[in-house]
Amino acid sequence: MANIKSALKRIKVAEKRRLHNAAVKSRVRTAIRRFNEALDKAEPNVVKETLAKAFSVIDKAAAKGVLHKNNAARKKSQLSRKLAQFKERKEQVG
């Protein structure tokens, strides 16, 4: 354990940030999971809402520095690709 006052503070701050970052990452995973669940249920209105929410959460995480901007872009790209595949399947079926 650190003895120097500044080192003790850094430990506290690092722990606080770790918990905050974990919460933000959890929000991102939850938003993505909800989008995937909406795709499985094939509800177009819900899919649009959950995609917008997921994009918003991902962008906020990237802006705060929790996710790297390229990581955020990749996640958004994957979600967009899934949406395109969903629309393509929907058109083929009916």
Shape: elongated
Mean pLDDT: 96
Topology as H/E string? HHH
Summed up, the domain count is 1
Radius of gyration, CA atoms, in whole angstroms = 18 Å
Q: Major sheet, described briefly? A: none
Helix and strand composition category: mainly alpha
Beta-strand portion reads under 5%
How many helix segments? 3
Distance between the termini: 65 Å
CATH architecture level-2 label: Up-down Bundle
What does this structure look like?
87% of the residues lie in helices and 0% in strands. It has one domain (27-93): Methane Monooxygenase Hydroxylase, Chain G, domain 1. It is elongated. The model has no long low-confidence stretch (mean pLDDT 96). By secondary structure, it is mainly α.
Task: Please give the structural blueprint.
Blueprint: H1 5-41, H2 44-63, H3 69-93
Essential attributes:
0% strand; 94 residues; single chain; mainly alpha; elongated; Methane Monooxygenase Hydroxylase, Chain G, domain 1
Quickly describe the structure.
The protein is mainly α and 94 residues long.
